[in-house]
């Protein structure tokens, strides 16, 4: 206990140099002072301003401390958070001293946890408010920002763990800068003595300039050629699509005569007349009947069990009456009518087939319209450079054009074999050049080691990449933190406004609940008095 107290006092002296703590004074602190010291340490770890616990409500203080300890993943020795909360509320030294020791020992790790917990702990949105579309969209954006912040922080930690010390890098950079100045001076000396003193210096510079201009002109011409080739391909595809449409139109018009067109028009006219004069009125009549039925059902009051029993009895009576009428009709049937029965049945069957054909025709028209719209949609989604599928005639024409191309392919293949042999020669030349390049690199490395500049170029490039990556990650993290803070503020504002809007409704609900309980109590008291139903009904209406 004394060692623990001594450690806590020494760490508090280092953390707060202006406050002169000692073991005797700290051992005699009151519970309120211990809670204040614990609050100050937690606020320091969280990089927040210290809170005066005397002016703050004690329950709010304990709630704030427990929330911070939850973020820092503190586990009480007893394993019971309720006992910890009670000990903190009473300011017991036996619970606060171990807690202070743990906070001061793990301060670097806890600072990182508190920093991450400030942004990674999600805001709890009440389920009643999750139905708002704007709030739901804002909450999804908030979750995406959380994931982005996690990725940015993970990349930054990996980069910092993989990188070297900044001071050492700066020292190496200063040494390399001095070595670079020495090398630049030597190169300038060599340029003055060997290059500028040469007699063919001006001619070489003129040839290099002419070569640079010719290469730039060649690149410009190649780019222009590529653009023209792309335009030609697009125009060829457009012409192919147009020819295909014309061929389809001609094929559709092939073999069509005026009599055939007239017959098709008459058939379409008959079908349209049947649909307009018979099918549509029948559908309208059935729809009106169903609508009238639904209106009658909607206009009626809610049926009770007795009403349902009465309706079922009426249905049974009507069914028996209908059966009796059918039996009378069959008994008094005329033989002449029996002869006409097959024809009537055949006519009814034809009528049903006609209706089924009309329904099938309507479905086919709907399907055709849907397919046409789908085709137009797909054609609209095609890129300007994409082609439509080939038709049968186009495929035959393509096969006819393929024969001369086959001969051309054979000729090109022979050319390709010769070029392959040439490519082998060039590959061998490239290998020789690479070996010469490696030899030159080794000579350059030996020269650098001789001058004391070994690894200068590779180290400088790596250092530049490390600095650029670190700067980029810091900028990304700063932007994500700002967006995350802004989103959290907006969520808090929206939740507060929704709670303010729901407050009147909650008050009204409480009033209605109170009235319901009063009427329920009144009703139960009246039932216990065994009043007649009519008197009970009159009294209830009077209370309303």
Describe this structure in words.
This protein is 84% helix and 0% strand. It contains 16 helices and no strands. The model has no long low-confidence stretch (mean pLDDT 78).
Secondary-structure class:
mainly alpha
Count helical runs. Answer: 16
Largest sheet: none
In percent, how much strand structure appears in the residues?
A: under 5%
* Secondary-structure element series: HHHHHHHHHHHHHHHH
Mean pLDDT: 78
Give the fraction of residues assigned to helices: over 70%
Alpha carbon gyration radius: 47 Å
Low-confidence stretches: none
Report the span from N to C terminus: 72 Å
Q: Total strand count, please?
A: 0
Shape: flat
GO biological process, one term: cilium assembly
GO molecular function: tubulin binding
Coiled coil: 354-381
InterPro entries: IFT81 (IPR029600), IFT81_CH (IPR041146), IFT81_N_sf (IPR043016)
Tag the structure with descriptive keywords.
single chain; 544 residues; mainly alpha; 84% helix; flat
In short:
The chain is mainly α.
Task: Produce the secondary structure layout.
Blueprint: H1 2-15, H2 23-27, H3 31-45, H4 58-71, H5 81-90, H6 93-105, H7 107-120, H8 133-162, H9 166-195, H10 201-253, H11 258-299, H12 305-331, H13 335-381, H14 392-451, H15 456-528, H16 533-543
């Amino acid at each position: 206990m004394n060692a623990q107290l001594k450690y806590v006092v020494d760490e508090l002296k280092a953390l707060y140099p202006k406050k002169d703590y000692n073991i005797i004074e700290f051992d005699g602190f009151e519970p309120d002072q211990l809670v204040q010291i614990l609050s100050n340490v937690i606020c320091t770890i969280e990089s927040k301003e210290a809170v005066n616990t005397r002016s703050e409500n004690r329950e709010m203080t304990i709630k704030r401390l427990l929330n911070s300890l939850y973020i820092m993943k503190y586990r009480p020795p007893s394993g019971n958070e309720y006992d910890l909360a009670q000990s903190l509320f009473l300011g017991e030294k036996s619970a606060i001293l171990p807690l202070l020791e743990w906070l001061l020992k793990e301060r670097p790790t806890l600072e990182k946890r508190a920093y991450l917990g400030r942004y990674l702990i999600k805001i709890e949105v009440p389920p009643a408010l999750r139905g708002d579309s704007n709030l739901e969209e804002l909450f999804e954006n908030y979750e995406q920002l959380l994931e982005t912040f996690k990725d940015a922080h993970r990349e930054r930690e990996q980069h910092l763990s993989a990188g070297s010390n900044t001071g050492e890098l700066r020292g190496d950079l200063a040494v390399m800068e001095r070595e670079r100045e020495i090398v630049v001076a030597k190169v300038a000396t060599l340029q003055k003595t060997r290059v500028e003193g040469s007699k063919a210096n001006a001619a070489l510079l003129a040839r290099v300039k002419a070569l640079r201009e010719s290469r730039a002109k060649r690149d410009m011409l190649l780019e222009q050629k590529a653009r023209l080739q792309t335009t030609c391909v697009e125009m060829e595809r457009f012409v192919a699509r147009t020819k295909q449409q014309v061929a389809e139109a001609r094929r559709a018009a092939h073999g069509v005569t005026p009599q055939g067109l007239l017959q098709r028009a008459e058939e379409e006219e008959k079908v349209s007349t049947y649909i307009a004069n018979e099918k549509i009125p029948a559908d309208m009549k059935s729809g009106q009947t169903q609508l009238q039925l639904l209106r009658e059902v909607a206009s009626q009051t809610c049926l009770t069990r007795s009403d349902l029993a009465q309706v079922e009895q009426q249905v049974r009576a009507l069914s028996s009456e209908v059966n009796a009428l059918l039996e009378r009709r069959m008994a008094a049937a005329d033989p002449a009518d029996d002869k006409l029965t097959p024809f009537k049945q055949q006519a009814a069957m034809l009528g049903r087939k006609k209706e089924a054909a009309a329904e099938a025709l309507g479905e086919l028209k709907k399907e055709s319209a849907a397919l046409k719209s789908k085709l137009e949609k797909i054609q609209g989604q095609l890129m300007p450079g994409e082609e439509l599928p080939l038709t049968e005639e186009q495929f035959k024409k393509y096969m006819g054009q393929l024969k001369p191309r086959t001969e051309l392919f054979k000729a090109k293949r022979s050319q390709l074999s010769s070029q392959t042999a040439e490519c082998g020669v060039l590959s061998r030349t490239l290998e020789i050049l690479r070996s010469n390049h490696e030899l030159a690199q080794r000579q350059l490395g030996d020269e650098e080691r001789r001058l004391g500049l070994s690894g200068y170029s590779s180290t400088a490039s790596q250092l530049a990449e490390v600095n650029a990556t670190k700067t980029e990650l810091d900028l990304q993290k700063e932007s994500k933190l700002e967006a995350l803070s802004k989103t959290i503020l907006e969520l808090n504002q929206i939740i507060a406004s929704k709670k303010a809007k729901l407050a009147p409704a909650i008050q009204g609900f409480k009033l209605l609940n109170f009235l319901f309980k009063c009427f329920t109590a009144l009703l139960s008291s009246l039932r216990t008095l065994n009043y007649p139903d009519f008197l009970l009904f009159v009294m209830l209406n009077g209370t309303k």
